[in-house]
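Justification of resources, computational component.

The compute hours requested in this renewal are based largely on the per-chain cost of generating structure records like the one below. Each record pairs the submitted sequence with a full structure-token output. That output is archived, and it is also reused by downstream analysis tasks.
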Amino acid sequence: MKILILNGPNLNLIGKREPEIYGTQSLDDFFVTVRQRFPDCVIDSFQSNHEGVLIDKLQEAMGKYDGVVFNPGGYAHTSIALADTIRAIKIPVVEVHISNIYEREEYRHHSYTAEAAVKSVVGRGLEGYAEAIRYLLQL
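The structure output for this chain reads:
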């Protein structure tokens, strides 16, 4: 199985940004261990702070990947365009949030992208990415 892990704005700062919420391990370091845990999968990762670039990557995933693990960051709460793209690409997308968005500020409680995804994994820390991959493997 070929999986794209796609990360939105500010996720390049994981390990440095608000360690009390997001921990101290970088995503790059964590993805090394994720790839080792799923040796039968090809796992590519990409991060962008730009909504249009994320839309382009989701569209490019069609025909190239079997599934997408997507942490849209703050765009989850604002981007109807990303939700529309998830619906349009016809491959399963699992949304991931490292923190529990439902225990944070009220404006984070609604996720447009979760409405379009096949599943949402929330508040499991970095382990949520592995949980999302396991879900895609079961489909």
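The domain at 2-138 is CATH 3.40.50.9100 (Rossmann fold). DSSP finds six helices and five strands in the chain.
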